Amino acid sequence: MQRTQPGVLKRVELHLKRMVKQVVISHHQRSNAVLFSDTTLRDGEQMPGATLEPEDKLRIAHALEEAGVHSLDAGFPASSESDCEAIRKMVGEIKKPVLTCLCRTTYGDVDAADKVLKGHPIHKRGVSLFCGTSPLHREYKLNKSKDEILNLIADTVSYAAERLAIVAFSPEDASRTEPEFLCQCYQAAIDAGATTIGFPDTVGILTPDKARDYVRQIFEDVPNISKALLAVHFHNDLGLAVANTLACIEEGAHVVQCTINGLGERAGNASLEEVAMALALHEDQYGRTAKIDTTKLAPLCQLVAELTGIPLALNKPVGGSNIFATEAGIHQDGLLKNPDTYLPFRPEKVGAEGIRLVLGRHSGRRAVAHHLEEMGFQPTDEQVLEVLEEIKRLPKGSVIDDPCLKDIAEKIMKR
User: Fold this and answer.
1) What angle do the packed helices 54-67 and 81-90 form, to 10 degrees?
2) What is the dihedral of CA 280, 282, 285, 291, to 10 degrees?
3) 357: which of 105, 367, 377, 403 fits an S-S bond (Cβ 3.0–4.6 Å)?
């Protein structure tokens, strides 16, 4: 009986792997779902002052898993032993999301990622390669020609694809790369085995219309685009990262790369919680589904703020402490009658504690009466007005907490 040659068996094995990959990719493309890829633990941590210890990263990874993210950018193994330690803690512990590691287009980075991910299920581990492609990066950073860049992409993506089932490639500074060359880079990466291609607006210069145009051109001019998923990654230097992300979702992007609280380099990245809530509230517009449990978002924002030491702005969308708080009398009156009068969504939608009627110079009678009744007082309308006037006479910056309100009420009600 004739034996099958080892080389033939290897080619058959590779062919079967590619078929399985294509089935998975095609499934995601047809599903119409938006896959959330969180990069808080890698790009978010690059924000000055946001350093996380390995145990902190594991806690955040668990919270992201509970929230329903599809993949985690777990770290950059070649950059530090701390990143390696954090990733090793996640291996086998984080069950649902895909774990990916950032790599430059070098064999050594791929080997480091492959090593640190050992023991994790093969369909749940991958690498994300990047290489500068813009004229600025080619000339001043890499000193390479276009042909050299294309060869480097093909070589390292192919090397990674032989070792890992999931391989993403992103051209760094894509938004300042010549569109024709950008599409050539994507074609080379997909031909070499990339399962996802990324479009990063590395310096955050795009507007929604221009971001949309780039994505449209990628879908039209990359001939083998059907063999890969398209991910988008926006920085927030113009305050447009979320808007750009949503524009690309409308154009058909499959994966969105975000961070919790919008952490990241310079002005940060697209905020995961903001993108997720926009999709949840406007499903009629976007026509896309997402497996994010929005009730986990507010606690997740607080956890990341606590562990990174980067506090949330009071007015930060979704997670900020003022989102469900108001001092304005007209708003307080409306909220007491029906919370939907002055809220885009209820606190429980994002797992927040509840509405806060803050007492101050702008408050109205209804809010004061509500607070007093909750504290056990039964004031008359006249007494409520007296308490309100006393509050308005307090110095600027005074905090009207329960002890303060109690003192005021007791003095007035003893008259």
Assistant:
1) 40
2) 0
3) 367
Of 26-40, 207-221, 246-260, minimum mean pLDDT range: 26-40
Contacts of 137 (CB under 8 A, 6+ apart): 172, 173
Reduced to 3 states (helix: H, G, I; strand: E, B; else coil), residue 171 is strand
CA atoms within 13 Å, Cβ hemisphere of 409: 22
Q: Which helix (H) or strand (E) holds 99?
A: strand 98-104
The answer to whether 271 and 51 are in contact (CB under 8 A) is no
Say which residue the tokens 């795009």 belong to.
206
What confidence tens digit (pLDDT) does each residue in 356-385 have? Answer: 887 888 888 888 888 788 888 888 888 878
**Contact of 374 with 336, CB cutoff 8 Å:** no
End-to-end CA distance of the chain: 109
Q: How far apart are CA 363 and CA 392, in angstroms?
A: 9
Is 23 within 8 Å of 226 (Cβ atoms)? no
Q: Are 85 and 113 in contact (CB under 8 A)?
A: no
Angle at 24 between CA 20 and CA 30, to 5 degrees: 140
- Which residue, among 365, 358, 361, has the nearest Cα to 323 in the 3D structure? 358
Q: How many CA atoms lie within 13 A of 372 on its CB side?
A: 23
Q: Which residues does residue 201 pair with via DSSP β-bridges, in sequence order? A: 234
| C-beta separation of 172 from 198 below 8 A | no
The structure's pTM equals 0.90
**φ/ψ of residue 326, rounded to 5:** -150, 145
Q: At which residue do the structure tokens 């790009």 appear?
A: 43
> Contact at 8 Å (CB) between 305 and 320?
no
- Alpha-carbon distance of 356 to 235, in angstroms, equals 32
Distance CA 354, CA 127 (A): 40
Cα(48)–Cα(37) distance, rounded to whole angstroms?
22
Kind and range of the H or E run holding 197: strand 196-201
Provide DSSP, 321-385: TTTTEE--HHHHHHHHH-GGGS-SS-GGGTT----EE--STT--HHHHHHHHHHTT----HHHHH
**Contact in structure between 256 and 34 (CB atoms under 8 Å):** yes
